[in-house]
Amino acid sequence: MPDYSYLMQGIKKVETDSSLLVSSSKYLNDARVRDWVSTHLLRRNGSDVPTPSDSIQLVQILREVQDIDYINELIANERKANPELDAWFAEGFSSSFTLKDLSEYAPDTVGGIFHTQLSNNSLDVNIVPPFEPQNDFEYFNLRAGQTHDLEHILGGGGFDFIGELVPYYMRLTNLFVHLSPELAGELSAFSILGSTRIITRAVLHYPQTWLITQNAMERGARVGRESAPLYMMKFEDVFDMTPDAAREQLGIRCVEIVDTSAASAQWN
After folding, report:
1. How is the chain split into domains, by residue range?
2. Could you tell me the CA-to-CA distances from 170 to 90, 101, 121, 249 in Å, in that order?
3. Which pLDDT tens digit goes with each residue over 148-192?
4. What is the distance between the alpha carbons of residues 27 and 101, in angstroms, rounded to a whole number?
5. In this structure, what DSSP letter does residue 49 have?
């Protein structure tokens, strides 16, 4: 057998009195996170477990694993150093438009494109039911849910499984550009796990789509790196504009449109 002892140097056995699995990672310590990661990063797509259910399970788990008080403390510190962010939280804007409201916009506008996507696929305006946020972290997540589909439209991500990587990586990159690493990391726990399930499934089960999958990651990261803070954008103000005009107005840059629907269809 080959001798790999050189590469195994430095490993230390840690003694513990714990009768349970324990590590320095709160994510590794949680059995639900371990099960979610092992299941959804390794499984194939299947109609018995629709892919949107992956995400909501992860959201519910992370709400119990993450230290919400600590995240709100990080946000409070960031607000002190960032007047624009502070004003955004203070305003607390929340969407209230309906599908009927969107029907009034021309087909080539952001609002019209969003209406077509929702109505053609029998989708609700709200990914999750509206709620009254009780703290800054909850408000951040409320707005992230309200703007997710609009980030698809303006960021160039198709409404399909591979296309999800574009808004994922827009956020993953953009948060680290505009916020402290500590806060960006806490706000990105969902995105890094949720997006990685797409990446591993592509390589393990759908390798013929890997280059298209990788391109979606790269396109999203490029938009995130070059754009103004995505999380503070009020997309509702540009419903009457074409996507190009809306991008210029909001500061969304370096968008490349690629159709990933045919590749995603191979995952079904």
Report:
1. 40-265
2. 24, 27, 24, 18
3. 999 999 999 999 999 999 999 999 999 999 999 999 999 999 999
4. 42
5. B
> What are the backbone dihedrals phi and psi of residue 82, each rounded to the nearest 5 degrees, phi first?
-130, 95
Which burial class, exposed, middle or buried, applies to 255 when counting CB atoms under 10 A from its CB (0-12, 13-18, 19+)? Answer: buried
Q: Are 234 and 88 in contact (CB under 8 A)?
A: no
Provide the 10 A C-beta neighbour count for residue 99.
13
Pairwise CA distance, residues 28 & 31, whole Å: 7
CA 70 to chain centre: 21
Query: What's the first-to-final CA gap in the chain, in angstroms?
Result: 41
Q: What is the C-alpha to C-alpha distance for residues 58 and 40, in angstroms, rounded to an integer?
A: 10
Distance, CA of 159 to CA of 177 (rounded, Å): 25
Paired residues of 49 in beta bridges: 46
Angle at 249 between CA 183 and CA 159, to 5 degrees: 70
* pLDDT higher than 80, residue 248: yes
User: pTM higher than 0.85, yes or no?
Assistant: yes
CA–CA distance, 199 with 194 (Å, rounded to integer)? 9
Give the pLDDT confidence of 185-208 residue by residue, as tens digits.
999 999 999 999 999 999 999 999
